[in-house]
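Quick start: what a row looks like.
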Amino acid sequence: MLLQDPINSLDDKSESRLYVGNLDLRISEAALIKMFSPYGKIVAEDFLWHTRGPKRGEPRGYAFVQFSTKEEAVLAKEKMHGKLVCGRPLVVRLASEKYFMEGAESSFGAGGETSKSNFVAGSSAQMSKTAKIAAIKNKLKAMEEENQNSKRPKTADKLSDS
């Protein structure tokens, strides 16, 4: 009797599963499968829909595609990432990949600004809780300094006019 290790089989699944994002709302499940099928055998596809609210029944704009092997998934990722579909560049990555912001604490300057170059994965970048707190504190500090600097000249003008 052959027993499968459920943990390893789960890892194998996630290694061959792709996240496909920035999908135009006109893309259907069938179109998605047709786009990715040249790169290997698709064993599963999970097209996400809004289930509540005013957008109920509309696509969420992302999906997951499961290939039979990791190699097929990697090939599909290489070929499809950034490809324009309905005027939008697809975001394709392995579902197991994690994207974080590079140097989140140090990316915010005195003015509380950050540049897009600090993001590893653009709009899909994620920040840790600590990084978010640091960013909010830096922004608050910058806003307080800006507020104090803008109040000082007005106060001085009012005193000199009296």
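That is the whole record. Strands lie at 17-21, 42-49, 59-67, 84-85, 88-89, 91-94. DSSP finds four helices and six strands in the chain.
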